[in-house]
Structures are given as C-alpha cells and as structure tokens.
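In this supplementary section we document a worked example of the pipeline. Step one takes a protein sequence of length 394 as its only input; no multiple sequence alignment statistics are reported here. Step two produces a three-dimensional model, which step three serialises into structure tokens for compact storage. The input and output of this example are shown verbatim.
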Amino acid sequence: MRDDLQDLVDEVSAVLGAPATLEDRDFTLLAFCAHDGTGPATPGATMDTVRARSILGRSSTAEVRAWFESHGITAATAPVRVPADPAAGILTRLCLPVRAGGRLYGWLWLLDEGRTDVADPAAPGLGAAVALAAEAGRLLAEGRPGTGDLSTALCTVLTDPPSPRAVRALTDALGAATPVTLVALLPAAPGLPAGWTPPGAGAVPAVLAGGAEVAVLLPLPGGGDPRPAGALSGAALGHLPAGSTAGVAAARTGCGDLPAQWHEARTAARVAAVDPRLAPAASWPELGAWRQVAALPGPDPALAALLADPVLTGTVEAWLDCAGSPQRAAAQLCIHRQTLYYRLGRVQELTGLDLADGADRLLLHLGVRAARLTSAHPERPAPRRWSDLSSVDR
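The serialised model returned by step three reads:
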C-alpha cells in the first residue's frame, strides 16, 4: 500500500504543480513529493518550516496541529485553504481531506502559493486532485484496524495515561459523532468460557485483569439511548457463568472520555455484585449513593471491631437502609424489636458512635457499604490485551 500512496502523492503533485505531502489523522507523514520545478511553482514555495519538520521528523508539533485544526480541517469534506502564518514559518496550503465511507483518514497538503481557488469547482487540476484524495482514503480504509487491533486499542485507552493514537483508532472506526457506551462484565468463576465473543454489532471487546474483567465498547445508533447496551449486557451475561454481573456507563459522543466511562461501568458492575436490588446488571445513572461509596478507599478504621461481627454489621446496615425505622428493620431481619435494640446498643459500644446523630449515621452507613464493596472486589492485577489470551483463556 505504501508504494500506491507514494504514486498517488506524486500524481497529485503533478496535477496541481506543487509539492505535496500525505499525513494521517495523527499528522504522521505517510508520503511526500518535491515538485520537479516545472509549471508555475517557484523555488521559494517548495519548502517551509512545517514541511521541513514533517519530512525530517515525520510529525508536526502540537502548535502546528492546532493551527491547522483551527481552520476546520478535521470536519472538512471539501478542499480547504489554510492561510499563511509568517511568524510561525508557515506558507499557505491547499488541504484535501482524505476520507472514505464518511470517515477522515488524513490530509493531502500542497504548497501551491494560493493559486488554486477552492471555491471554484472548475479550478485547473482541482477535480482530479479531489479524486486522488478519495483514492487515498480508499487505500487507507483498506488498511484500517481489524477487531483484534481495536481490542488492543481499547485496552490501551483504559490504561493510565490513555494513548491518543489508540483513541484516534477507535474514533476512526466508530465515528467521531457516534454515541458510545462501555459495558463492564465481571465473570464469575471459572471465568470466560472458551470461544466467548461479545454480542452486538460493532462491539469491541477488551479482556482486562487476566480475564477477571471484560470491557465492551458499544456504539449506540439509537441516538445515544443506553437501554440497548443494557439489553446487550444481559445477553452477554447469559453466556457467562452464574453469578456474573455487568455495568453500563452513561452514554457519550465519541471515544474521548472512555477512561471515565470505564470507571462508571466497572463501578456499576461491582455494585450489582453486592446489591441484590441492582443485580445482575446495573447502570451508572441508577447507582445513587453507591457512587459516593465506590469513591471511598474503604471503611473508616474506627469501624473495624463492628465489621468483624457479621451479625451486627448486617443488622445496622438493614436498620440504616430502612431509614432508622425499628419496625421495618425488625421485620426485614425477622427478629424481635427488642433484639434489634440490643444489637444497635452493641453497635454503639463497639464504635463509640451515637446512632441518634446524623453525621455518625452517615459515617456508619458509608462504612458498612464500603466494607461490602471492597471485600467483594479486592484490587485487580494489571490489564491484559485481548491478543495476549490463549485459546484456553478465551
């Protein structure tokens, strides 16, 4: 493909009589051609600081990228005239978006001294150059990442810090304007079955933590409605061992906020594993106070003596969940009300907290929930890439 791209850049240069370069979405140089000196181009127009840096270093600085992007090149579907910036050593350029299937794969740049009128479809050579840009888009689209590559990209994005190149690969594959969500799956023992694949058209999976967690990136064609993701997570759970849980992040447009979505999805899946009211699949918007609990590193150390007694811990949590109602809590626990009062007194003795004080109740409620969440989900090992898994793992 690289030879085809070089031939194409040579042809564009000849058609418009100007030096040409081809760059991908990350402004990485793919091919370039120095004009042969015939035609209207003058020697002084064949090179500027940006072109020299691109050829020698095969990339551009963040400032240069920002300059070009400020002129709308990322959204352009037709030729764009980018003006000169003498202070930055930038000559005027003709920019031809390289697209295929509605997706942007890069740009063809020509140092044409401003001769080509982008507003005139009949401008000499412009139509042929646009057709060659479309051909470049087709060639780059044929070399787009496959499912395995996208899974690796997703795994990379979910590490810290996320890779801009990996985000770009996912954006190019799914579309910058496509609403997406992340689903987190927590498979119960014995883990992922052999040959497991995620349900849903366009789903991109990434196996993390040695198979203990699975991230599934899902496009939401229905206007960003996360309910299809909930249905798909339920379908995925049907292929996982009993006791597995799932979490669904809030939908966002594009792939620029995937780490935050992974936090939301993973938190929802963890909560679904410990709260029967939300099991087996929960979504971030419905978690309520569990969002604050999940942000805690664990229960307050002052509650250690209480948490060592599962009967007292379960009693006080039920009472707090019932908003401090003795009648409801005793009925839920199937115990006499006097037994409840006795246990609550023991809780006060062990913790030194005043159950009539709102702040103490809040500390206690957050603490017992945090203990339930952290005990069910200890720290996970580092992520693994989908391609690293053996057939047995899969």
